[in-house]
């Protein structure tokens, strides 16, 4: 019998010394836990991982993870992450953000990142509200959500990120719930391992500005239909989705983007020569 071999890393190896400052009860705490657990399960060395983010509560993630990190400007995390992966294909690149950062000002970058299919993992903590800027409706907010900032609701159809991701060419599409860190960890492991652009929407309640979202734990459910590699079947399934199906929805087989014509370089002197006048 082969003796059990302890994993090379533990989740705690990926936690930085910076204490998270999210509101008590925020779902992002469990997302952070799931990210560190996934990296430990995959055995990626901290120095071989980079976490990129934009602006928002969820975008604090790079500060709390022990790896390379970059805190970008609002909505611009994906071009930074894709550029990094092209320049350093040896790195495991995670991009983290929220529904406001990713689907509003960053919406165009989201679509084209899916289309390019570069081998990165995009993790969006969706709470259907702008939490850091005090509760404005976001692109995924329900049209009838009544609040002091939008009395009676916006009346606007919400953005459907899974539909957009699939239609734009994402190679892996999934949804999880922050309140189920074990399932979220499993999905993140699969997303990071899968070649190409992986998109994981994580329903992560904002207990401060959306206390009604505490009830999500009672309505999320495992998708009744198995994952598929057929975009047409996935489209039919996603278009009839109730917004709370949890699991891997689509696992495609499109080859990820690769450099052509020359090898990527991380040598700063060589990069400087390319731009010399």
Describe the structure.
This protein has 277 residues and is of the alpha/beta class. The protein has one domain: Rossmann fold, CATH 3.40.50.970. Helices cover 32% and strands 16% of the residues. The chain has an eight-stranded mixed sheet with strand order 2-1-3-4-6-5-8-7, with helices on both faces. β7, α9 and β8 form a beta-alpha-beta unit. α5 packs across α6 and α6 packs antiparallel against α9. The longest helix has 15 residues. The chain is globular and about 60 Å long.
Q: How does the SSE layout of this entry go?
A:
Layout lengths: L27 H15 L6 E5 L7 H4 L3 E4 L5 H11 L4 E7 H7 L1 H10 L4 E6 L34 H8 L3 E6 L3 H13 L4 E6 L12 H4 L1 E2 L8 H9 L5 E7 L16 H7 L3
Parallel strand pairs: 1-2, 1-3, 3-4, 4-6, 5-6, 7-8
Antiparallel strand pairs: 5-8
Essential attributes:
277 residues; alpha/beta; Rossmann fold; eight-stranded mixed β-sheet; 10 helices; globular
CATH topology: Rossmann fold
**Number of DSSP E strands:** 8
Kindly provide the name of the CATH class. Answer: Alpha Beta
CATH superfamily: Thiamin diphosphate (ThDP)-binding fold, Pyr/PP domains
Instruction: Please outline the major beta sheet.
Output: 8 strands, mixed
């Amino acid at each position: 019998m082969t003796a059990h071999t302890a994993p090379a890393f533990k989740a705690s190896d990926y936690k930085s010394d910076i204490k998270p400052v999210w509101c008590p009860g925020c779902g992002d705490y469990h997302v952070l836990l799931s990210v560190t657990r996934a990296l430990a399960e995959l055995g990626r060395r901290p120095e071989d991982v980079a976490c990129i983010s934009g602006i928002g509560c969820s975008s604090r993630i790079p500060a709390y993870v022990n790896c390379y990190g970059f805190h970008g400007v609002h909505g611009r995390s994906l071009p930074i992450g894709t550029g990094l992966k092209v320049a350093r294909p040896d790195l495991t690149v995670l991009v983290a953000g929220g529904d406001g950062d990713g689907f509003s000002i960053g919406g165009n970058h989201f679509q084209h990142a899916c289309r390019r299919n570069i081998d990165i993992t995009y993790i969006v903590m969706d709470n259907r509200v702008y939490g850091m800027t005090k509760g404005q409706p976001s692109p995924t907010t329900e049209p009838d959500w009544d609040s002091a900032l939008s009395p009676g609701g916006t009346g606007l159809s919400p953005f459907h990120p899974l539909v957009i991701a699939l239609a734009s060419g994402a190679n892996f599409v999934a949804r999880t719930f922050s309140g189920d860190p074990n399932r979220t960890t499993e999905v993140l492991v699969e997303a990071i391992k899968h070649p190409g652009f992986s998109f994981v929407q994580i329903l992560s309640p904002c207990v401060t500005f959306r206390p009604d979202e505490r009830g999500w734990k009672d309505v999320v459910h495992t998708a009744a239909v198995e994952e598929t590699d057929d975009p047409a079947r996935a489209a039919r399934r996603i278009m009839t989705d109730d917004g709370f199906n949890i699991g891997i929805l689509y696992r495609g087989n499109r080859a990820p983007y690769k450099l052509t014509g020359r090898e990527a370089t991380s040598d700063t002197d060589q990069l400087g020569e390319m731009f010399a006048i």
